[in-house]
């Protein structure tokens, strides 16, 4: 599960959920967009999709069965700025949600 943070925050907003996902048997990746938190560079909203692609590429190298993208605000919109823009992007194999404002547990309480 790739967790993309919202504008005005950094990856730390996802740490609690990442721990819960891990405890439930899911691998979770948190990261900072360029120019945010401990990352270098400059934040350019129009280019945040590039960071999502980089995160998915990083995860794909570990050969997961599936990749899910979860984001809040800017992070939720970031995957829409990355290549593909469909529910399943054949370029990176990640599944995307479509405009959901809540995160629903994956068939069990996390």
Would you kindly provide a written description of the structure presented here, covering whatever features stand out?
The protein has 110 residues and is of the alpha/beta class. 25% of the residues lie in helices and 12% in strands. It contains 3 helices and 4 strands. It has a 4-stranded parallel beta sheet. Helix 1 links the parallel strand 1 and strand 2. The longest helix is centred in the middle third of the chain and has 13 residues. The C terminus is likely disordered.
Task: Describe the SSE topology.
Blueprint: E1 2-4, H1 15-23, E2 29-31, H2 48-60, E3 67-71, H3 74-78, E4 94-95
Parallel strand pairs: 1-2, 1-3, 3-4
Question: What's a concise summary of this model?
Answer:
This protein has three helices and four strands. It has 110 residues and is an alpha/beta fold.
